[in-house]
Amino acid sequence: MNDILDRQALWNISYGLYVVSSVSGQKTNGQIVNSVIQVSADPPSIAVSINKNNLTHEYIQESGVLAVSVLEEETPMNLIGLFGFKSGRDVDKMSQVSCRDGQTGCPVVIDSSLCFFEGKVAGSVDCGTHTIFVAEVVGAQVIKEGTPLTYAYYRNVMKGKASKNAPTYKGDTGLQDKPEDKKMEGGMKKYVCNVCGYIYDPEVGDSEGNIEAGTSFEDLPDSWTCPVCGASKDEFSPEE
Amino acid sequence: MNDILDRQALWNISYGLYVVSSVSGQKTNGQIVNSVIQVSADPPSIAVSINKNNLTHEYIQESGVLAVSVLEEETPMNLIGLFGFKSGRDVDKMSQVSCRDGQTGCPVVIDSSLCFFEGKVAGSVDCGTHTIFVAEVVGAQVIKEGTPLTYAYYRNVMKGKASKNAPTYKGDTGLQDKPEDKKMEGGMKKYVCNVCGYIYDPEVGDSEGNIEAGTSFEDLPDSWTCPVCGASKDEFSPEE
Questions:
Q1: Burial class for B234, CB neighbours closer than 10 Å (0-12, 13-18, 19+)
Q2: Assembly ipTM
Q3: Å from A117 to nearest chain B CA?
Q4: Greatest extent of chain B over all pairs of C-alpha atoms, in Å
Q5: Contact yes or no for A141 and B38 at CB 8 A
Q6: Of A221, A227, A131, residue with least CA distance to A172
Q7: Quick check: pTM over 0.90?
């Protein structure tokens, strides 16, 4: 067999969507993760893969504890935007949602969550850009009945995108940084997505959404959505 | 917060269903796994959790290579039965399905598979009953378009059960071994499930399916299914 490495094959792996949170002293943070699995039944243990550049990675290493909240299918885009597209270095994420203090000292996200579990790190393995943390589950609670949000539902039904730090990053969010390099000209204002931080620049337009360069934000059709996170037009604010 | 460990919370983790295969010399084997995740984008790496008692675990340790086939939603129960409920110590599984030799030397299951990827083990972490193997993906191919089989679909639509070696084992397959201890009496014949090996014993009945002790296999309703793997009545053969 010839050597073939078609990365699309990896897109068929099925995932849920979770908020993984941790703590460091008085500071707390959390982020969206899709790569959570149970790895042992007795004692119950789970594994999560976290990008080394993320603040949550730093906190898990420092405290040795983490919590996982399983998101429901009805999770609003702005919660995914907050935990998936913003950094805890810029925003105090936990102050913007309902949280509990877990028994490990870890903050636990309750908003839009069907259940949560928290654990103590029992091992880890270096995977290049990411670390897998293995945690023995020491606490777990069901909050309510419901359908867990899957990554497939988020992509196919909610039309959401992947953060560039996701292990499954599909390379389709490259527009995120480009418009910031452009100067505003001709008096048309740039607009910022409140969900993921993407900036709509009228001088650039949005080729993915078939929006020609020179189209003002006001002239975008109401059906237009953020090319990065899928947020609707009313999630945008004028750039300051 | 009081210490609470409700394992049902862990049942909300979303998974796909895969055949993970490996090789040792001339011998090959594979097994059903639900715990597969991509853990890094560059180089592409995946992680799988495998029970230490399984033959596939032994082969992965010996050869340092593994392949993952992503099963389609239409996967028949007997393929899941073969790879999920039978041991490679008893059956030459790979001889019963369409396979390819992968570029790592690993056999790759093609039947009922949307795609496959294979890799070289780059790290591992001991998780008690299981080992997580991290593999750098060196080959990957899409076989066909389709919907990946999820663990939720397998349980909720196909009414399948978990093998007792699964990390997510729910403890509902305890009937699997019990009937073998019973003697056949009164002339009523025992029947064996071709999918998972469960034995229906008329002297015991099937409490999960509301079948009273003393009910012959012939008198079971046509809607009755195997309490272990969900196979239909016509998947059963008289015990020899």
A1: exposed
A2: 0.79
A3: 7
A4: 64
A5: no
A6: A227
A7: no
